[in-house]
Write a structure and sequence with these properties.
The protein is of the alpha+beta class and 416 residues long. It has helices at 13-17, 20-29, 46-54, 64-67, 74-81, 97-108, 111-115, 118-133, 140-145, 147-157, 164-179, 184-210, 216-222, 233-264, 266-274, 279-290, 321-324, 360-377, and strands at 32-34, 40-43, 59-60, 137-139, 296-300, 304-306, 309-311, 316-319, 378-383, 405-410. The strands form three sheets. It has a five-stranded mixed β-sheet. Strands 4-10-9 form a three-stranded antiparallel β-sheet. α12 (184-210) packs across α14 and α14 (233-264) runs parallel beside α18. The longest helix has 32 residues, at 233-264. The N and C termini lie far apart (56 Å). Bound molecules: protoporphyrin IX containing FE.
């Protein structure tokens, strides 16, 4: 029997794990779908998502209360009280105020700065591969896809490498809070880590104000924003938090999910080995299919309609990027990976409009460098037998593989 949208529960862990049939049904039958028993409306079609992302007056990013999740337990609340009160910046702001922070991030994140980073990224990628290549196997998420973006952003932020494990733990805690599915014990642990992050960053910010260096934090905290003033501590902490969370989990997930698809579809892997010039296009196709930021929230500011469906003021709108990127109206045979797809870069995995990802250039570059080196140095890459369940983190906003155990043969460079 043909399924309908109500046959799926969006919050069901099984649907979160394998959501694509649900998305297909939504796109066909209920492109503006109110999740039963909630005030959440989900947009699943490409054009609807783009139009809503452009209309910042009706669909606001002022969703801090959603980011914070449900009210914390008394134990978690007490921990949060010992940190810095969160304030809105960038992602959780609308125009015109959004521009104050966005111009700052654009200055700090200039294409020139990112362009200069390629040799340094290649060096990090080589070091990571060096650490496991002789074993002939690795857990790719842990050994490669996680440290690469963390190293890059930590170095750019000017945080010493010995603190990298902590950075990863903090960014996981933010992602877990954002995902809204943490257990009571995890919620308290998340609060502890988030407050630890705040105090750590406050020290770094103070230090960079006093002793600026050539790194992003120094620029961020010393550039004047409006009225000739610099960001205050809460604003600085919020901005740096966004760079950590937005950049780490997403790039990790794109890297791992992409490699899994290439392993499963060996013809696609062969195409890239035969013609490495296709890697840049493959990265776009991987971003389209993986859409690690699977969806983002908007708050509805006035009674409105989309495609004839009424949406009341104060509802939540979910822009489902992961579904929009498989919309058959835009992409032929959309569930299929095709690294040569002509319009792969029409995807909106980095969002669209005002909040379009400022890290897109950086994320893409990391992926391009990573796949180029991996294919140069490893061959016969396959799934390690008996070790993979290929499940994803339970998270309604971010999607990423938990683990990816692979085996491979090192490429014999002397044979070339
Ligand atoms: C594959 C990697 C990445 C993906 C898929 C991704 C995805 C996204 C998406 C979908 C948005 C739009 C959010 C919205 O619609 O409200 C966004 C915004 C953002 N991203 Fe990324 N991102 C990635 C990498 C990065 C990196 C490397 C950084 C920085 C280090 C970064 C920093 C940000 C920030 C700060 C915003 C908020 C921008 C604003 O509100 O104006 N992202 N990202």
């Amino acid at each position: 029997m043909k399924k309908s949208a109500d046959d799926f529960d969006f919050f069901d862990p099984e649907v979160i794990e394998s959501p694509h049939e649900f998305y297909q049904v939504l796109r066909q039958q209920a492109p503006v779908y109110q999740l039963p028993g909630t005030n959440i409306f989900m947009l699943s079609r490409y054009e609807d998502v783009r139009r809503a992302a452009k209309d910042t007056a009706t669909f606001s990013n002022d969703f801090m209360h959603v980011l914070k999740g449900p009210d914390p337990s008394p134990e978690a609340a007490e921990i949060y009280a010992s940190g810095y009160e969160p304030v809105d910046t960038l992602l959780t702001m609308d125009p015109p105020r959004h521009k104050v922070y966005r111009s700052l991030i654009n200055k700090v994140f200039s294409a020139k700065r990112v362009e200069k980073m390629r040799p340094y990224m290649e060096q990090i990628v080589d070091e990571l591969i060096d650490a496991f290549i002789d074993r002939g196997e690795c857990e790719f998420v842990h050994d490669f896809a996680t440290p690469l973006p963390v190293y890059v952003i930590a170095d750019q932020l000017g945080v010493p490498r010995e603190d990298l494990r902590r950075i990863k733990a903090w960014s996981d805690a933010f992602a877990s809070r954002l995902g809204g599915m943490a257990s009571a014990v995890e919620e308290v642990e998340n609060a502890r880590l988030i407050v630890e992050y705040q105090h750590y960053m406050a020290k770094v910010v103070e230090d960079r104000r006093a002793n600026p260096r050539d790194d992003m934090i120094s620029d961020l905290v010393n550039i004047e924003i409006e009225d000739g003033r610099k960001m205050n501590m809460q604003e600085a902490i919020s901005m740096i938090e966004q760079l950590l969370v937005a950049g780490n989990e997403t790039t990790t997930s794109a890297l791992s999910g992409g490699l899994l698809s290439l392993i499963q579809l060996s013809d696609q892997m062969h195409t890239l080995r035969d013609d490495p010039a296709m890697i840049d296009n493959a990265v776009e196709e991987i971003l389209r299919l993986e859409s690690p930021s699977a969806g983002l929230w908007r708050v509805v500011t006035r009674d409105t309609q989309i495609n004839g469906i009424s949406i009341p003021k104060d509802s939540l709108l979910m822009l489902r990027y992961a579904s929009a990127n498989r919309d058959e109206r835009v992409f032929d045979d959309p569930e299929q990976m095709d690294v040569c797809r002509k319009n792969a870069d029409d995807h909106i995995a980095f969002g669209y409009g005002t909040h379009f990802c400022p890290g897109a250039f950086l994320g893409r570059k990391e992926m391009q460098v990573a796949y180029t080196k991996l294919l140069q140095r490893l061959t016969n890459i396959r799934l390690a037998e008996g070790k993979n369940d290929l499940t994803h983190w339970p998270n309604v906003v971010l999607r990423g593989l938990k683990e990816l155990h692979i085996t491979f043969d090192p490429v014999d460079v002397t044979a070339a």
